[in-house]
C-alpha cells in the first residue's frame, strides 16, 4: 500500500514532533508500505533518515509568519498533484495542521484520507496566547477536515472522546492508537553511568522531566512544589530537559522563587541522548 504522508515538520531540526514522524514513517516502511513523505524545506539542509521504501519530497517555503503556511499549502498542492500523476497513493495520511490541502487533494484523486490528531490544538494554542481569530480559524478547519476525513487516528481514548463529542463525529471512524516507544533506543542503562556522561553528581537525587516545553505539560506545578520537596529532601535537584514556548516562562518562575541552583534546564536534546537523561533520574 503506497502512502502519502503529509506534514509540516522540519525534519532536520531536533524535536519530539520530528521523532514522531520519523518513527511512524520508518515503521510503515519497514512493514512493507512505500511512503512518499511531503515536508517543508526552510533551508538547504535536508535529512533523509532512511532510504528504504521512502521518497522524500521537500517543498520550498520561506519564514514569513502566516504567509509561511499559505506558501506551503499552495506549493504542496502542486507537488502532490505532480507526484500523483507519476504514481497515485492508496492512502493520504495527514499529521494534523490547519491545512485544507490534504483533504482537497484526496478528494480530487478519489483516495482515502486519514488524519492523525496528537493533541487538542485549540486548547494548546490558547495556552500560548494565540490570537482569537487564529484559534477560530483552526477550529473551523479542524471541524471540516475531521468531519470529511475517511478515518481519524487519535493518540488516546480521551482524545478520541473529545473529537467525538466536540464535532459529533461517529466514534467508529476514530481509532485510538497510543504513542509508543522505540525499545531499541529507550532501554535501561545503569544510573551512575548516565550521570557521569551528563556530569551530574552520582549520589544526588534527581527529579526529571523530558519533552517539549509547553504549558499543557504543567511543569509550573512542579516548580511551585519544589520548595516543599526541598524542605524534606534538601539534596534533591530538578531537571527539565527539552525546549519550547514555555521554557523561558518556567526559568523566570524558578528565578523568582530563588531556586536557580536547584534546577537544571538542559535545552533541546537529541533523541539518541534521551535514554541517558531518563536513566539518570532517581
How much of the sequence is in beta strands?
Answer: 15-25%
Pairing-aware structural class of the strands and helices? alpha/beta
Low-confidence stretches: none
Strand order of the largest sheet: 3-2-1-4-5-6-7
**Shape verdict:** globular
Tell me the distance between the termini.
45 Å
What is the total tally of β strands?
10
**Helical fraction:** 40-55%
| Annotation field: number of helices | 10
Largest sheet: 7 strands, parallel
Whole-number radius of gyration?
Answer: 21 Å
Structural features, described:
With 282 residues, this protein is α/β, with parallel strands linked by helices. 41% of the residues lie in helices and 19% in strands. It contains ten helices and ten strands. The chain has helices at residues 16-30, 66-86, 101-108, 121-127, 132-148, 157-167, 191-197, 219-232, 247-256, 274-280; strands spanning 3-6, 35-41, 54-60, 91-95, 112-117, 151-154, 174-176, 205-210, 236-241, 263-267. The strands form two sheets. A seven-stranded parallel sheet has the order 3-2-1-4-5-6-7, sandwiched between helices. A three-stranded parallel sheet has the order 8-9-10, sandwiched between helices. Helix 6 links the parallel strand 6 (151-154) and strand 7 (174-176). Helix 4 (121-127) runs antiparallel to helix 5 (132-148). The radius of gyration is 21 Å and the shape is globular. 22% of the residues are buried. The mean pLDDT is 90.
